[in-house]
Automatic annotation (TrEMBL):
Main location: cytoplasm
Recorded catalytic activity of this chain's protein: 3'-dephospho-CoA + ATP = ADP + CoA + H(+)
Pathway entry: Cofactor biosynthesis; coenzyme A biosynthesis; CoA from (R)-pantothenate: step 5/5
Function: Catalyzes the phosphorylation of the 3'-hydroxyl group of dephosphocoenzyme A to form coenzyme A.
One family name in Pfam for this protein: CoaE
Keywords carried by this UniProt record: ATP-binding, Coenzyme A biosynthesis, Cytoplasm, Kinase, Nucleotide-binding, Transferase
Descriptive protein name: Dephospho-CoA kinase
Family statement drawn from the similarity comment of this UniProt entry: Belongs to the CoaE family.
Record-listed E.C. numbers: 2.7.1.24
Amino acid sequence: MRAPGRPFVLGLTGSIGMGKSTTASLFRELGVPVHDSDAAVHALYTPGGGAVAAISRAFPGTLAADGSVDRTLLRDRVLGRPEKLAALEGIVHPLVQAQASRFLAEHADAPLVVLDIPLLYETGGEARCDAVLVVTAPPEIQSARVLSRPGMTQEAFTAILAKQMPDAEKRERADHLLDTSRGLEAARQEVAALVENLSDRRG
């Protein structure tokens, strides 16, 4: 139950290919403010973005001609290298968390807000949430979705899964679950019910 004077903060997470982005859009359809951590990272990587200079120093040669971070080059630098990934996360995560804090302050009067964080459990982000919604789907559906993405390879998919908490553990830790394999309309109805429920949790 949220404290007086601030929104109920729902963390939204799920492994790659589980339908998290679509679920976030369903919350937006209902007028719920959503902070998208992936979008925040993209902004940090654009020309003049807050992470560009630090990434350029830590990973020379990863900038594109326009001054943005080349995400493909950067991914190749950290893929399968835990120490490099940790260095990158040390640059990016504090900046994203600072943006999320500003987002919460901007929407202090909302009854409910969503923090969309892919690595929520992996980074301890649940500590900033009142409850967590995990989106899930059967492994075969997850794999088909991910491998259909442009430029995605089985190697990259396996590496991404290796740094994410297993879906089973996320489901066990979740306060709420949404199985996206049941289709968009079913997901829309479940999100609407959840919004109605959580928006009434006043401190």
